[in-house]
Amino acid sequence: MEILKSLGVDGTIWIHLACFLVSYIALTQLILKPYQKALEEREKRTVGNEEAAVQIIEEANELHSRYEQKAREVNAKIKSFYDQSRTAATKEYDRVIEAARAEAGQLLDASRSEITTEVQQAKRTL
Protein backbone atom coordinates (compact mmCIF):
# COMPACT_ATOMS: atom_id res chain seq x y z
CA MET A 1 0.00 0.00 0.00
CA GLU A 2 2.88 2.28 0.71
CA ILE A 3 3.94 2.03 -2.90
CA LEU A 4 0.50 3.04 -4.14
CA LYS A 5 0.35 6.00 -1.76
CA SER A 6 3.81 7.12 -2.84
CA LEU A 7 2.59 7.07 -6.46
CA GLY A 8 -0.36 9.26 -5.52
CA VAL A 9 -3.01 6.55 -5.60
CA ASP A 10 -5.43 6.93 -2.74
CA GLY A 11 -9.09 6.19 -2.02
CA THR A 12 -10.31 8.24 -4.97
CA ILE A 13 -9.24 5.45 -7.33
CA TRP A 14 -12.54 3.75 -6.73
CA ILE A 15 -14.42 6.91 -7.64
CA HIS A 16 -12.34 7.26 -10.82
CA LEU A 17 -12.93 3.62 -11.65
CA ALA A 18 -16.69 3.98 -11.10
CA CYS A 19 -16.77 7.11 -13.32
CA PHE A 20 -14.81 5.30 -16.00
CA LEU A 21 -17.13 2.28 -15.92
CA VAL A 22 -20.26 4.44 -16.06
CA SER A 23 -18.81 6.46 -18.97
CA TYR A 24 -17.69 3.32 -20.79
CA ILE A 25 -21.07 1.62 -20.44
CA ALA A 26 -22.94 4.79 -21.48
CA LEU A 27 -20.73 5.36 -24.54
CA THR A 28 -20.91 1.71 -25.54
CA GLN A 29 -24.71 1.56 -25.31
CA LEU A 30 -25.46 4.98 -26.80
CA ILE A 31 -22.81 5.35 -29.50
CA LEU A 32 -20.75 2.26 -30.26
CA LYS A 33 -23.52 -0.39 -30.49
CA PRO A 34 -25.79 1.67 -32.81
CA TYR A 35 -22.78 2.51 -34.96
CA GLN A 36 -21.81 -1.18 -35.11
CA LYS A 37 -25.37 -2.18 -36.10
CA ALA A 38 -25.46 0.50 -38.80
CA LEU A 39 -22.08 -0.62 -40.11
CA GLU A 40 -23.19 -4.27 -40.28
CA GLU A 41 -26.43 -3.29 -42.05
CA ARG A 42 -24.49 -1.22 -44.56
CA GLU A 43 -22.13 -4.11 -45.26
CA LYS A 44 -25.13 -6.44 -45.79
CA ARG A 45 -26.70 -4.01 -48.25
CA THR A 46 -23.42 -3.35 -50.01
CA VAL A 47 -22.64 -7.03 -50.54
CA GLY A 48 -26.19 -7.68 -51.74
CA ASN A 49 -26.06 -4.66 -54.03
CA GLU A 50 -22.75 -5.76 -55.51
CA GLU A 51 -24.32 -9.05 -56.58
CA ALA A 52 -27.40 -7.25 -57.91
CA ALA A 53 -25.17 -4.78 -59.76
CA VAL A 54 -23.23 -7.61 -61.40
CA GLN A 55 -26.48 -9.28 -62.43
CA ILE A 56 -27.89 -6.02 -63.81
CA ILE A 57 -24.68 -5.39 -65.77
CA GLU A 58 -24.87 -8.88 -67.27
CA GLU A 59 -28.51 -8.32 -68.25
CA ALA A 60 -27.62 -4.93 -69.75
CA ASN A 61 -24.82 -6.49 -71.81
CA GLU A 62 -27.18 -9.22 -73.03
CA LEU A 63 -29.82 -6.64 -73.97
CA HIS A 64 -27.17 -4.56 -75.73
CA SER A 65 -26.04 -7.53 -77.82
CA ARG A 66 -29.68 -8.36 -78.70
CA TYR A 67 -30.23 -4.73 -79.67
CA GLU A 68 -27.15 -4.73 -81.92
CA GLN A 69 -28.29 -7.95 -83.60
CA LYS A 70 -31.78 -6.60 -84.25
CA ALA A 71 -30.34 -3.30 -85.46
CA ARG A 72 -28.19 -5.18 -87.96
CA GLU A 73 -31.23 -7.15 -89.15
CA VAL A 74 -33.28 -3.97 -89.56
CA ASN A 75 -30.41 -2.25 -91.39
CA ALA A 76 -30.11 -5.24 -93.73
CA LYS A 77 -33.85 -5.12 -94.48
CA ILE A 78 -33.71 -1.38 -95.08
CA LYS A 79 -30.69 -1.77 -97.35
CA SER A 80 -32.36 -4.52 -99.39
CA PHE A 81 -35.55 -2.45 -99.70
CA TYR A 82 -33.49 0.59 -100.68
CA ASP A 83 -31.56 -1.42 -103.28
CA GLN A 84 -34.76 -2.86 -104.74
CA SER A 85 -36.38 0.57 -104.87
CA ARG A 86 -33.29 2.11 -106.42
CA THR A 87 -33.09 -0.63 -109.06
CA ALA A 88 -36.78 -0.19 -109.90
CA ALA A 89 -36.37 3.60 -110.03
CA THR A 90 -33.32 3.28 -112.28
CA LYS A 91 -35.23 0.99 -114.65
CA GLU A 92 -38.17 3.40 -114.69
CA TYR A 93 -35.79 6.33 -115.28
CA ASP A 94 -34.13 4.51 -118.20
CA ARG A 95 -37.55 3.63 -119.67
CA VAL A 96 -38.79 7.22 -119.40
CA ILE A 97 -35.57 8.61 -120.87
CA GLU A 98 -35.70 6.16 -123.79
CA ALA A 99 -39.34 7.05 -124.44
CA ALA A 100 -38.51 10.76 -124.30
CA ARG A 101 -35.56 10.29 -126.65
CA ALA A 102 -37.69 8.31 -129.07
CA GLU A 103 -40.40 10.97 -128.99
CA ALA A 104 -37.81 13.71 -129.40
CA GLY A 105 -36.30 11.82 -132.33
CA GLN A 106 -39.70 11.48 -133.97
CA LEU A 107 -40.43 15.19 -133.43
CA LEU A 108 -37.01 16.07 -134.78
CA ASP A 109 -37.52 13.91 -137.88
CA ALA A 110 -41.01 15.36 -138.38
CA SER A 111 -39.64 18.89 -137.97
CA ARG A 112 -36.80 18.20 -140.41
CA SER A 113 -39.14 16.79 -143.02
CA GLU A 114 -41.50 19.77 -142.52
CA ILE A 115 -38.57 22.19 -142.82
CA THR A 116 -37.35 20.40 -145.93
CA THR A 117 -40.82 20.59 -147.44
CA GLU A 118 -41.12 24.29 -146.63
CA VAL A 119 -37.64 24.97 -148.06
CA GLN A 120 -38.59 23.22 -151.31
CA GLN A 121 -41.83 25.17 -151.51
CA ALA A 122 -39.92 28.38 -150.87
CA LYS A 123 -37.46 27.51 -153.66
CA ARG A 124 -40.32 26.82 -156.03
CA THR A 125 -41.99 30.09 -155.24
CA LEU A 126 -38.76 31.99 -155.75
Plain-language structure description:
It is built from 2 helices and no strands. The protein starts with a helix and ends with a helix. It has 126 residues and is mostly helical. The mean pLDDT is 91. It has helices spanning 2-7, 13-125.
User: Roughly what percent helix?
Assistant: over 70%
Number of helices: 2
Global geometry: rod-shaped
> How many angstroms does the end-to-end distance come to?
164 Å
Largest β-sheet summary: none
> Which segments are poorly predicted (pLDDT under 50) over 5 or more consecutive residues?
none
CA-atom Rg in angstroms: 51 Å
The secondary-structure element order is: HH
Number of strands: 0
Structural class call reads mainly alpha
Oligomer: single chain
Strand content: under 5%
What is the residue-mean pLDDT, rounded to a whole number? 91
